[in-house]
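User: Could you check the structure of this?
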Amino acid sequence: MTAGRGRPEHTAARPSWRCRACGAPWPCSSARLRLLVEYRGNRPTLMMYLNAMMADAAADLPERPDDPGSDLALRFLAWARSR
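Assistant: Sure, the predicted structure tokens are below.
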């Protein structure tokens, strides 16, 4: 789980669903870029993977209807949709 010289990769730390490397909500921008490269040419599989991660996050994270940043569909899926 490290990238390079002992630095953590941009992966999700559970149960907070924050990036291990930068602390941003996962998937952070670096994780998004890595996922787009990894799943290049296979967007449906990327969407299935992200949907599974979103379901795990929904089970781990408390519901916060007062927090507009808590929309997991926007966080996990919207950025990866085909343009």
